[in-house]
Write a structure and sequence with these properties.
alpha+beta; Beta-Lactamase; Transcription Regulator spoIIAA; 3 domains; 13 helices; single chain
């Protein structure tokens, strides 16, 4: 189409359309558009000078995206009009093979304008308040949006990555979830970069034809939560070590005579404590090759079926190691409870006190084998 024919077409075209060069400078403008917005959007004017100052970064991002995209690109901006409130317009454009931008504008209804203003205000409030980075890349991996308070935490300026390729910045497996999102599969994962712990959501964005145009990412600075979790883990480990030390102090494995070990049990026995005693006594009996092991229950308040069964299994395990195990100091109350529960100790040596159990062991050691 010749220049004169194109000019004639734009003179008669009823829509709000224009052609601009790659920098956003108007080359041809429809008469309807010029009448609507005046000479501020005439030939030679620039898109950046046409919109309100607060939206110029949107136009810059819009032009960068057009330079890298083969399909249509859309943005919404505000433009001042003399004596009237700012008009909100939606611009849809495509870059031609010659590098020119062919675009059409659509006025946004007042209700949509209000909604757009609210959305922008909410977005700015979120990006300026929360420790997040919101970003978007096109199908080639180039950043078309990059902003958020948490960027400064990583030593990065908001918008610093615009025009860069995410796969060049984060090569290898780091970019794999983003590739999957560009293929239509969203992802959620944690990572560490720039000395910061991040939690990221990758969201594929489709166009009207159902094709993936962008991957939108929401990255949250999760360092505080990670530090809190690690501190809590350290505290729990300390508590477990303290509990183990308390268990060992409350039921120490003592060598009270040559080849005789004893474990004085005090207080209430539970499964965890019984397992701990079992582990320590079996280890010490095997290491020292002792002949006798005495479980003294003089200080035990009560025994239930489960704990009594575990103690009997402990004595059976000692027997397999060649150690004769026995129980001493069963109180009348504990004896009555055990009989009432049907706990059988027929196969176990029992003694009224630790002294009697020790005397038995000493006598057995003095007898020739």
């Amino acid at each position: 189409m010749s220049a004169s024919t194109l000019a004639e077409f734009f003179e008669c075209f009823p829509g709000l359309a224009f052609i601009a060069d790659g920098d956003g400078t108007m080359v041809c403008v429809s008469r309807a558009l010029e009448q609507r917005f005046g000479e501020r959007l005439g030939v030679g004017a620039t898109l950046a000078a046409w919109v309100v100052p607060a939206d110029r970064d949107i136009i810059e991002a819009f032009l960068r995206e057009l330079a890298d995209s083969e399909g249509p690109v859309t943005c919404s901006v505000r433009t001042p009009r003399a004596g009237e409130p700012d008009a909100s317009v939606r611009c849809t454009a495509r870059r031609s093979p010659t590098g020119l931008i062919h675009a059409q504008l659509e006025l946004v209804a007042p209700a949509e304008q209000a909604a757009d203003r609210i959305e922008r205000a909410l977005l700015r409030a979120i990006l300026g308040t929360l420790e997040i980075v919101l970003w978007a890349i096109d199908h080639t991996g180039k950043f078309v949006f990059h902003d958020g308070k948490a960027a400064a935490t990583a030593g990065v300026r908001p918008g610093q990555f615009l025009g860069m390729n995410v796969f060049d910045l984060f090569p290898g497996d780091t970019g794999k979830p983003i590739r999957e999102a560009l293929d239509g599969t969203p992802s959620h994962y944690t990572s560490e970069a720039f000395g910061v712990h991040w939690e990221t959501w990758n969201i594929p964005v489709q166009n009207d034809a159902g094709q993936i145009d962008y991957c939108v990412g929401l990255t949250l600075d999760n360092s505080t939560s990670v530090r809190t979790e690690l501190e809590l883990k350290d505290q729990l480990d300390t508590i477990r070590k303290q509990q183990r030390a308390i268990h060992e102090l409350s039921a120490p494995v003592l060598r009270i005579w040559d080849n005789v070990l004893t474990v004085p049990l005090i207080g209430t026995m539970d499964v965890e404590r019984t397992n701990d005693i079992t582990e320590r006594l079996l280890a010490e009996a095997s290491r020292s090759r002792t002949r006798f092991a005495i479980l003294d229950v003089t200080g035990v308040e009560s025994l239930d079926t489960s704990i009594a069964d575990r103690l009997l299994r402990l004595l059976g395990s000692l027997r397999l190691l060649g150690v004769e195990g026995m129980i001493s100091g069963i109180s009348p109350d504990v004896a009555l409870t055990m009989v009432g529960l049907g706990i059988q100790l027929a196969s176990v040596h029992t003694h009224g006190s630790l002294r009697e159990a020790l005397r038995y062991c000493m006598g057995a050691l003095e007898r020739p084998s």
